[in-house]
Design goal:
The complex is a heterodimer of chains A (111) and B (114).
Chain A: E1 9-13, E2 18-23, E3 32-38, E4 45-50, E5 55-56, E6 61-64, E7 70-75, E8 84-91, E9 105-110
Parallel strand pairs in A: 1-9
Antiparallel strand pairs in A: 2-7, 3-4, 3-8, 5-6, 6-7, 8-9
Chain B: E1 5-7, E2 10-13, E3 19-24, E4 31-37, E5 43-50, E6 53-56, E7 65-68, E8 75-79, E9 88-95, E10 104-105, E11 109-113
Parallel strand pairs in B: 2-11
Antiparallel strand pairs in B: 1-3, 3-8, 4-5, 4-9, 5-6, 7-8, 9-10, 9-11
Classes of the chains: A mainly beta (111), B mainly beta (114).
Chain lengths: 111, 114
Amino acid sequence: DAKTTQPTSMDCAEGRAANLPCNHSTISGNEYVYWYRQIHSQGPQYIIHGLKNNETNEMASLIITEDRKSSTLILPHATLRDTAVYYCIVRSPFRGGKLIFGQGTELSVKP
Amino acid sequence: NAGVMQNPRHLVRRRGQEARLRCSPMKGHSHVYWYRQLPEEGLKFMVYLQKENIIDESGMPKERFSAEFPKEGPSILRIQQVVRGDSAAYFCASSPGEGGHGYTFGSGTRLTVV
């Protein structure tokens, strides 16, 4: 699975959009980008995934660059409950097996 | 639909005792993954199991740790002769099959060794 690079921490004002970047320059053609988050020692929670098109669901939007070497997770209106560690993971769903978590980005949403 | 169920939520063991952590996957999921999270650290993969088979145990410590996923019943992570360094949160995830997008995590078991 390709390696990802994320900033260690970020702050965001409540009600504003939170934009979390992820670099994955070695991503291969059949690898997807997945985002999970972990809220204060709870189990990781799936947010969204994508291959090359931008994706949106009720939680977030995922913007993937045309060359697929980086992506951005967007929480459109961050709330205090979005304070968590956000993990960007690149893997192929066709191969199966484990998810490998990096250090993630610790997002602090402030009032 | 029940999610991934882990029990107990909290477990306290004295040094030298055995710890048994249970994980019931989501209905229809036949693949289970165990992760460990030491205090102030990230999630580390331990073992990946299908029913009655260990597929990948590359993250398991060589001694004292074992895992099983029997044909009937939950997956069990067993830690023998626990030491203080085993104190951590242990998370289980399940997926419906080989590959795919659908990994779901449980709420974890917090093991404290005293």
